Amino acid sequence: MNTTQRRAATCLATGVVAATILSGGAASAGVSGPAFYVDHQLYRTVGTPTDLSSTGAPAHAWDVIYDLGGAQMNVATAAPGDAGYNGGRWQVHALSFPNGYSAALAAGDLDHDGVLDAAAEISDALASGAAVDTGVVKQFECPAIPLNHARS
Q1: To 10 degrees, the CA torsion angle through 118, 122, 123, 129?
Q2: Which residue of 75, 108, 119, 121 shows the fewest CB atoms closer than 10 Å?
Q3: CA 71, 73, 75: angle at the middle one, nearest 5?
Q4: Based on the structure, what is the number of domains in the chain?
Q5: Is residue 151 part of a domain?
Q6: Backbone phi, psi, residue 99, to 5°
Q7: How far apart are CA 38 and CA 149, in angstroms?
Q8: In the chain, what percentage of residues exceed pLDDT 90?
Q9: Are residues 13 and 77 in the same domain?
Q10: Pairing between strand 89-96 and 132-141?
Q11: Do residues 30 and 47 make contact, with C-beta atoms less than 8 angstroms apart?
């Protein structure tokens, strides 16, 4: 590529970036509001176009996010700073509720705040049979960003 071609490519790339920013693309780049819970704390994330479902990575390479099927926000088992946190590599486990979400909430909401918002609460709902882990539905990567810095 000669100097003129390099300058043209640079100008084109700069124009694309500027157009994206001016059109609001940077603001909608995938940064979420509240997205999931970890240990009673709300986290947000940055949506990424990753699908790592076919990598064959071992189970210990992932942290789990439980997908509650829209009944409430999802619940993850780890976050930055936790021992063994896998850096935002997630294995999504879908949950079903044979007797309804309210039965799972009654079985698992240990702190009585109206949501299942910790892995221990999900575990209790699973152990009671009020929630059923129907298996892994996706594996992907995205960061876990606390909405505030106070974790209980």
Answers
A1: 160
A2: 119
A3: 115
A4: 2
A5: no
A6: -115, 20
A7: 12
A8: 62
A9: no
A10: antiparallel
A11: yes
For the chain, what is the mean pLDDT?
A: 81
Tokens of 139: 């594996």
Judgement on whether residues 142 and 94 belong to the same structural domain of the protein: yes
Domain shared by 72 and 19, yes or no: no
**Does residue 77 sit in the same domain as residue 44?**
yes
Its domain, for residue 73, covers 31-146
Mark whether 68 and 92 lie in a shared domain.
Answer: yes
- Residue 76 inside a domain? The answer is yes
Yes or no: say if 62 and 139 are a contact pair by the CB < 8 Å rule. yes
Of 150, 79, 55, 66, the C-alpha closest to 115 is: 66
Output the six-digit token pair for 111.
């702190």
Residues 6 and 67 in one domain: no
Q: What is the DSSP pairing of strand 36-38 with strand 74-76?
A: parallel
Whether the model pTM is above 0.85: no
DSSP string, 39-73: TTEEEE-B------TTS---GGG-EEEEE-TTSS-
